[in-house]
Request: fold
Amino acid sequence: MSAELKTLRPAFVAVTALFLAWGFITAMIDPLIPAMRTLFSLSYAESMLTQFAFFTAYGLISLPAAALIASRGFITGIMVALGAMFLGCLLMLLATRMQRYAVVLAALFVIASGITVLQVAANPLAAALGGASRSHFRLVLSQAFNSLGTVLAPYLGALFMLHGGVFSGGTTQTAEMRAASFHNVDRSFLLIAALIAVLALGIHLSRGFMAAAVPAPARQRSVLPALRSRWAVFGAAAIFLYVGAEVSVGSMMINYLHQPAILGVTLERAGKLLSLYWLGAMVGRFAGSALLVRVSAAPVTFAAALAAAMLCGTVIGTSGGSGAVAALAIGLFNSVMFPTVFTLTLERSSAGAAATSGLLCMAIVGGAVLPPAVGLIADHAGLRAAFAVPAAAYLGLAGFAHLAWRSPPLRTGAAEPGPPHELGSA
Reply:
């Protein structure tokens, strides 16, 4: 093993651990939605404000995150991100003590702000820690561990937040039952805070070899160059649609499976079944990381997006077990879409990787925009009809993938995080 590989491999492992952590935290919001809906007597649209608060951070914080990383480096950016996430968990404890939904939303925004910085740093790092020819493979592999976090979180979140208290089966909520359920939310976010603290300690202790392996970020403090690249804009639109669709489906799933016409299970059981949705994404990413060594990313993305759209159509048109299976199976086809859209865009964008990555991470704000629309449709037409929103988003993703399939990249592999070559407009 070469000295360079000995340095790159532990750095890649450390970055992949960050993917796992933010996957766990992001998926913990899914069981939080029915918990908040019950505790605060919210409509579907009001409960989806949890996702609005969480994913709005991507639109507001991505630019400052890119500037921070450009001026202070990837490792400092990662440490700042973990600190913000830890602070947000402490704020969530305050929110449960006060029993104020507005403070819950504020805490989620702070946590998501840290995750935004983490994403701006970690996605191009995973692509860059090795040869350019395997950048798709590395990013999909890291995303597979991100999916491991999303598999564990709904099960544990449902076990903690949707068990006992107001979810014990009674028809009325007493003060003691509400207090018990808020305490269960506390335990969930204390677990997250502990995970973040361990990660921060690990990154701090490994700063030496991380600094030797991590490339210097581009001195790019603005996404304006990315806005001048049509491929960066196309990629941002695709990320907007993908994240909006993925978050919408995950956010609806527990209440959807809970319906008597679908499975009629308890909210706790539905929350545990949600892990199957994210398990499909994890299995798909491990399989996809192997597939993408042999097949180019664009046709894989095109096929996955079409399959996801068809499954959404099945959910709209059926009920019972077949509808439940179709909804849960969407996760399998979600698996490769984010990392392949990210790298397809990086290798076609004429802007630098830092600017392009910043714009792509801003586009994750789709997770704030589409779920409230889904909630409004669910309130007026039912949860099955609300699957029309992610169905349309997946069709848009298929269009992006088809266009990328027909358009050769400007560079081989994903762009490195350093200053790009001047390649003209896309």
Summary: DSSP finds 19 helices and no strands in the chain. Residues 3-406 form a domain with the Growth Hormone; Chain: A; fold (CATH 1.20.1250.20). Residues 1-5, 414-426 have pLDDT under 50 and may be disordered.
